[in-house]
Each structure stands twice: as structure tokens, then as C-alpha cells.
Amino acid sequence: MEKALIAGIVPAKLDTEVGKKYMYCTCGRSKNGALCDGSHAGTKLRPRAFTAQRERSVICTCKKSAEAPFCSGSHRGLSKADIGKIA
Fold it and tell me: Mean pLDDT over all residues of the chain?
């Protein structure tokens, strides 16, 4: 089973539109780390759809959150050296 890469060590704070659907990057290869940009091509990983519940969403970039796409604090303890490693 393919695993995601750690894209970042802090969550992304995104301005989102309540009720609008977004595509969360599950692979960790997206250039922005939080939302899908198609970088999963060639992998078995696929983005996950979510609907914004708030005007500001805090999105996981470490790919370790049990509450993905939202941050659960799982990035605590990670360092810059972890970026790009398997989540």
C-alpha cells in the first residue's frame, strides 16, 4: 500500500467558502501541501473531497491527522527534516 509523504509540519490555514466542496491532498506531493493539484498521478492515492463548514479551515499537511482533512495536532514533534518522508 502506498503511503503519503509529509508535506508540511504546520497546518495550512485556508480561506474557504462555507458549503463549497474542496479536494484534500492525501498523497503529500501537492505543491501547496493541503489541496490537490493532481500530483498524485502515477500513485494509487486519490484526493478526498470535503465540504467547508467554516470561512477559515485549518487543513492537515503532515498527513497524520486522524481528523483529516482537518488538523488534529498530529504535526507536533515533527521537524523540517521530516518533510518528504513517509507519513
Answer: 96
